UniProtKB/TrEMBL annotation:
The keyword Ligase does not apply. InterPro entries: ABM_dom, Dimeric_a/b-barrel. Gene3D superfamilies: 3.30.70.100. GO terms for molecular function: monooxygenase activity. SUPFAM superfamilies: Dimeric alpha+beta barrel (SSF54909). PROSITE patterns: ABM. The keyword NAD does not apply. Residues 2-91 form the ABM domain. It holds the Pfam family ABM. This is Heme-degrading monooxygenase HmoA. Keywords: Monooxygenase, Oxidoreductase.
Length: 96
């Protein structure tokens, strides 16, 4: 299992439009093979800063979604609402 952390900054005044587009992106990912779950968070006191945390079965499942036509389509709607490129980090459980 891996977790994908996506940080986004939204243009001021476009938060509502972003929420609609982000909900659609999450709906699309629900059907992706290997998608386990996810949540969307807003930073306290900074309505322009969002954090997406998604769980995937493995790296292959994430890469399949990341390069999919479905994600590309929803990102076409999301990207114009951002002030900078989204930042993506990939985490895996530590091994002891």
């Amino acid at each position: 299992m891996i977790k994908i952390i996506i940080e986004r900054r939204i243009m001021p005044g476009l938060e509502e439009e972003y929420e609609e587009a982000a909900r659609e992106a999450m709906r699309q990912s629900l059907g992706a093979r290997g998608f386990v779950g996810g949540e969307s968070l807003v930073e306290l006191g900074h309505s322009d800063r969002r954090l997406m945390i998604t769980k995937w079965r493995d790296m292959r499942a994430w890469k399949e979604w990341y390069t999919s036509e479905e994600r590309s389509r929803v990102m076409q709607r999301l990207l114009p609402l951002l002030t900078e490129e989204e930042r993506i980090r990939i985490y895996e459980p530590t091994t002891h």
